[in-house]
Amino acid sequence: MTAPASNDALMEDIVGLCKRRGFIFASSEIYGGYNGFYDYGPLGVELRNNIKQAWWRDMVHRRDDIEGLDSTIIMHPKIWKASGHIDSFSDPLVDCKDSKRRYRADQLFFAPVIIDGETLGYVAFVEGTDMPTILKRAKKIRDWADKTQSKIDEDALANDRKEVTEASEEQRAQMLAPEAGKVGSLTAPREFKLMFETKVGPLADDSAVAYLRPETAQGIFANYKNIVDTGRVKIPFGIAQIGKAFRNEITPRNFIFRSREFEQMEIEYFIAPDADWKALHREWLDTCINWLVSIGLPRKSITEDVHATEKLAFYSQATTDLMFQFPHGEQELWGVACRSDYDLKQHQKHSGKSMEIFDEASKSKFVPHVIEPSLGVDRTLLAVLTAAYTEDEVPNGKGKVEKRILLKFSPRVAPYKAAIFPLLKNKPELVEVAEKLYKKLQRRWNVFYDASGAIGRRYRRQDEIGTPFGITIDFDTIEKDGTVTLRDRDTCEQRRVTEAELIEFLEEQIDG
Ligand code: ATP
Description:
Layout: H1 8-20, E1 24-26, E2 38-40, H2 42-61, E3 66-69, H3 77-83, H4 85-88, E4 90-95, E5 102-104, E6 108-115, E7 118-126, H5 131-144, H6 154-159, E8 162-163, H7 169-173, E9 175-176, E10 190-193, E11 197-199, E12 209-211, H8 217-230, E13 237-246, E14 261-271, H9 277-294, E15 302-306, E16 318-326, E17 329-340, H10 342-351, E18 357-359, E19 364-366, E20 369-376, H11 377-388, E21 389-395, E22 401-407, E23 418-422, H12 428-442, E24 447-449, H13 455-464, E25 469-473, H14 475-481, E26 484-488, E27 494-497, H15 499-511
Parallel strand pairs: 3-13, 7-9, 23-24, 23-25
Antiparallel strand pairs: 1-2, 4-5, 4-10, 6-7, 6-8, 11-12, 13-14, 14-20, 15-16, 16-17, 17-20, 18-19, 21-22, 25-26, 26-27
């Protein structure tokens, strides 16, 4: 894997806008924040809920083969023994003895500093670090070797990159860590457990140890039998769940991309052991890509990362990650894994309960295999923000061209679907009609009412929070034909529509 280039300025713009307009705040901010935890403000919670609702509607309500579930965050610890999490849910960690910083070894890269064909040492950098920064660090190694005037092999620095997990002891001894003042400060990688522990019940001894779930998937496997026994499911079928997950990430970073408390939207799709899993895997990848496009992500910013067979867990048949071009580089958004019958068989073994299903179609009994599409809500939200953030120039009310910031949210996920404006706030006839329309639309959608300030400024405020449609009540509305002005956020184009046309248009755009 290579360390992708980042767009720090875009990330700063997004983080700034999220705070300024009340989308996302650092958790516990009045106490200086809490690394890896974020709170969603008034607009953020709407965006988040809309993403979850769009997913639920498309994956559960609009399909006949998927059922929903809401299982608990804390479950019997035996579940995590059976799933393998207690023994192996960990990440490789390295410490820097000089800067006292910690890094995930599989996200720390290193490249050789070569001068005249001779390797003088290695420079380590976190993923997303730009070339000028890497070169600056490499120059330190060159200077310490008293070769200040010599040319560094920049090609090797840019292309001969490996993960620090692959470094030998000798290479680590010559390696300059990202914030270290000397070489050789990185420890050997060791495994760091990611599950948060807690205690359940009155006893404080080891028997009370429980875990906050690091994924929602095991709640699905643990309830699979209940759903098979009580529902009318038949193979193939899926169980979907949305819920919080917790991981004590070593290096929470890149805003909400990697946090310690996050939310997942997961499906376990159960199939017959002899089903054409390759075709079904492809079908799921296409379903997932189409869904991402339906909430506003450009098709061209989604790519597929097929995991190499030799890197897969022994039970896994295939995993493909859908990658998205985030501001900090191309990174995993949605993992789609074929996990065979491993999880159900593990739970069958540890619980002693049969996980077999009787399949009417083939008149046979078996433990199904699964395909698991697993998506993070917060990562999706960051992807939606990244795709939506735009700066352009449009004429203001007086015809002067001005810079504007807008969020081009799809109407499906936009926090407010439309804003209603009486042209003037001191004309009761306009205000009365506008308020009536506002109340009517509010019964179906989250809409905004704004009567104060110049109309151009009111449009701008809505553009910046991504409201797709502006509806203005003006004198033509009350004096002529009752039509209103409908303004499009992205093109700023305006047209007159009747109330019936307006509602039909909004229905199609928002609920379609
Ligand atoms: P990564 O390699 O980035 O740590 P992962 O492969 O461990 O991710 P999975 O265990 O497959 O991730 O989790 C499924 C999905 O949950 C991911 O694709 C991502 O969208 C989301 N996710 C996982 N970890 C986090 C996190 N710490 N913060 C936010 N979302 C996360």
